[in-house]
Amino acid sequence: MHDDLVPSDLWERVAPLLPPAPEWRRRHPGRLRVPDRTALAGILYVLRTGVAWRDVPAETVGCSGITAWRRLRDWTEAGVWPRLHAALLAELRRADLLDLDDCAVDGSHVRAVKRGDHVGPSPVDRARPGSKHHLIVDRHGTPLAVTLTGGNRHDVTQLLPPMDAVPPIRGLRGRPRRKPRRLYADRGYDFDKYRRLLWKRGIKPMIARRGVAHGSGLGKVRWVVERTFAWLHQFKRLRTRYERRADLHQGLLELACTIICLRRLRKALRPQQ
């Protein structure tokens, strides 16, 4: 059953990046170790359904939720998810499916059920504990990077960190791409200081002005980031932050971004009927 939960094309890309079993497991194996693909099935089950780790149906998935959580912890600490995301972005660029000239950035609040790093009083949720997802996407809405902060962080302070988190995107001859030529954002990012910082990086800021009537036309490009947030929040585990550890929630965000990239690749490479 777990083979159905982990598509073959995803597994082929994940498997080479996974660290080997710990040395002590090889020397003292004890009970047979749960296969990595089965553990990944458990992680994907939680990501898609949003159930608690303890409620993962072992008879369906093939392993307990605690085993899946431990493997998520180990793989997150080994840096698997950023490398997987970077590999998919390179494939998309090689297939001419990325438009890195025009990018858009935005943030989205999520409630945080537990305390932990990057949790703060949310100004849009009656100061309840929350976190923010900050996302940068290309012209087509392909997620290039996602970062996590407390819910009380102003969007404009997170204009540059998502761009810094974009990996060097390979896939074509020449230098890897990391930055856009133009960056689109809404009025929440309208501060001259940050416009100057973008110009200094060689990026043209396309930011809506506060106090100016709607109709600038920037929304024709900027709307794709809102659509990508909708795609991300189709993964029910990301609608609310349950992980106390920020790195594990970040890992789930990066895994979801990878799956979105893989869907785009599949759609483009699907044989035409």
Separation of the first and last Cα atoms: 30 Å
Name the helix and strand elements from N-terminus to C-terminus, one letter apiece.
HHHHHHHEEEEHEHEHEH
Principal-axis shape equals globular
Largest sheet: 7 strands, mixed
The secondary structure category is alpha/beta
Helix share of residues?
Answer: 40-55%
Q: What Rg is obtained from the alpha carbons, in whole angstroms?
A: 20 Å
Protein topology:
Layout (H helix, E strand, L loop, with lengths): L1 H4 L2 H7 L8 H5 L8 H14 L8 H4 L3 H13 L2 H15 L7 E11 L7 E2 L7 E9 L5 E8 L10 H5 L16 E4 L6 H9 L3 E4 L11 H14 L7 E2 L4 H24 L4
Parallel strand pairs: 1-5, 1-7, 5-6
Antiparallel strand pairs: 1-3, 2-3, 3-4
Helix pairs in contact: 4-6, 7-11
Plain-language structure description:
This protein has eleven helices and seven strands. By secondary structure, the chain is an alpha/beta fold. Strands 1, 2, 3, 4, 5, 6 and 7 form a seven-stranded mixed sheet that branches. Helix 4 crosses helix 6. The protein starts with a helix and ends with a helix. The model has no long low-confidence stretch (mean pLDDT 88).
